[in-house]
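Consider the tokenized backbone below.
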């Protein structure tokens, strides 16, 4: 996960967590978001600008300005946020795994990369910003965390 994708998701979680329960938008200042999530201010503003351009957040300038979700947090999937700031969830040399062809002894790699993309989608297209705010993550996350190796670092032999 890149810093940019991590920061974008954390910024959205911060914005969503500060919204009133009645559904009315409450603008959150960029500097408040950046400070609360320890995101460099300029980086935060650039990310919020990208999210605004994609229609995920709305904003207004001025004393009463700031950012708020343009769509409900329950409809903002983590995968969509990553796609906005980074592009496809899984790419091979900048292409979609399903578009890359391998020949000879590497032919099976396409299936590996497509399966990798599917695994990422399984989590990132299921978990929403609202799930993260509430701390109630979908069952797919708990299922994956039950794997004995989920929390263990993989060591490269040698």
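A designed sequence for it:
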């Amino acid at each position: 996960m890149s810093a940019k994708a991590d920061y974008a998701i954390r910024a959205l979680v911060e914005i969503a967590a500060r919204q009133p329960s009645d559904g009315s938008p409450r603008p959150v200042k960029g500097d408040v978001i950046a400070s609360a999530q320890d995101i460099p201010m300029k980086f935060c503003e650039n990310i919020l600008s990208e999210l605004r351009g994609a229609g995920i957040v709305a904003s207004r300038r001025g004393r009463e300005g700031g950012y708020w979700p343009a769509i409900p947090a329950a409809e903002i999937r983590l995968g969509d946020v990553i796609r906005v700031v980074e592009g496809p969830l899984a790419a091979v040399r900048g292409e979609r795994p399903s578009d890359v062809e391998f020949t000879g002894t590497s032919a099976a790699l396409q299936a590996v990369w497509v399966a990798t993309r599917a695994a990422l989608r399984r989590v990132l297209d299921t978990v929403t910003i609202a799930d993260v705010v509430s701390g109630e993550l979908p069952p797919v996350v708990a299922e994956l965390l039950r794997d004995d190796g989920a929390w263990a670092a993989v060591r490269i032999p040698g």
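The chain has a mean pLDDT of 93.
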